[in-house]
Amino acid sequence: MSLIDNINKAFDHRIRLGIMSILMVNDHADFKMLKELLGATDGNLASHTKALEKEEYIKVEKQFIGRKPNTRYSATKLGKLQFKKHIEALEKLIGK
């Protein structure tokens, strides 16, 4: 097994890494919160959340708060597991 086997391509972009990092320590985050914390544009954030949703690493819930649409994200069990493996792989790589 090589050092980079558990490095996950789904997390290789800083925005996706940021999304997962935020969702690992928060039960959920909405679009506005992620956008502000990551300094991402709407389109950029939308494409990265879609990529993570496609892998089933995050769950997306759309709702209305008052009359405003609200999109909320949370990490799935699979997403948390894969992200932990990814971080452990990076730590091993750095440690070697």
Summarize the structure.
54% of the residues lie in helices and 19% in strands.
Description:
The protein is an alpha+beta fold and 96 residues long. It has a single domain (7-91), classed as Orthogonal Bundle (Arc Repressor Mutant, subunit A), CATH 1.10.10. 54% of the residues lie in helices and 19% in strands. It is built from four helices and three strands; from the N terminus they run αβααββα. It has helices at 14-25, 31-38, 42-54, 77-95, and strands at 29-30, 58-65, 68-75. A three-stranded antiparallel β-sheet has the order 1-3-2. The two termini are 14 Å apart.
Q: Keywords for this structure?
A:
3 strands; 96 residues; single chain; 4 helices; Arc Repressor Mutant, subunit A; 3-stranded antiparallel beta sheet; alpha+beta
Roughly how many Å is the radius of gyration? Answer: 14 Å
- Which sheet architecture does the biggest sheet show? 3 strands, antiparallel
The count of helical stretches stands at: 4
N- to C-terminal separation? 14 Å
Mean pLDDT: 94
Can you give the helix content as a percent range? 40-55%
Number-wise, the strands total 3
Question: Which helices and strands, and how do they pair?
Answer:
Elements: H1 14-25, E1 29-30, H2 31-38, H3 42-54, E2 58-65, E3 68-75, H4 77-95
Antiparallel strand pairs: 1-3, 2-3
